Amino acid sequence: QVQLVESGGGLVQAGGSLRLSCAASGSTLRVNTVAWYRQPPGNKRELVASISVGGGRTYYADSVKGRFTISRENAGNTVALQMNSLKPEDTAVYYCHVPVIGAWGQGTQVTVSS
């Protein structure tokens, strides 16, 4: 059993930055990829970024490439999503996801005002 807890969301003005964290606990031995998804209000959930735990390979959606950075943090079984140059269209609930386990976090709200 794997539990994922997101944190770091909040309200920020356009052009600002936020750093989200995904903390994993429980049995994480099978975790090989961690992903961030987001769900804008009234829209479908979409993949934002992912990282390979073993090799550090990363993927970014075109909409966030060059602005967001996904990374592993030094301790705590944590993956971070650094979000810079935020735009109003980045407003969404952001979720941490481990595909091999099928685990999702509870989500953290990111609101970008214009």
Characterise this structure.
- The protein has 114 residues and is an all-beta fold.
- The protein contains no helices and 11 strands.
- The protein is globular, with a radius of gyration of 13 Å.
What structural keywords apply?
114 residues, mainly beta, seven-stranded mixed β-sheet, four-stranded antiparallel β-sheet, globular
How would you summarize this macromolecular structure in one to three sentences?
The protein is mainly β. It contains no helices and eleven strands. The chain has strands at residues 2-7, 10-13, 18-26, 33-39, 46-52, 58-60, 68-72, 78-83, 92-98, 103-104, 108-113.
- Name the helicity range: under 10%
Number of helices: 0
User: What kind of oligomer do you see?
Assistant: single chain
Number of DSSP-assigned strands: 11
Largest sheet: 7 strands, mixed
Radius of gyration: 13 Å
Helices and strands, in order, run as: EEEEEEEEEEE
Give unreliable regions as ranges: none
Q: What are the SSEs and their pairings?
A:
Elements: E1 2-7, E2 10-13, E3 18-26, E4 33-39, E5 46-52, E6 58-60, E7 68-72, E8 78-83, E9 92-98, E10 103-104, E11 108-113
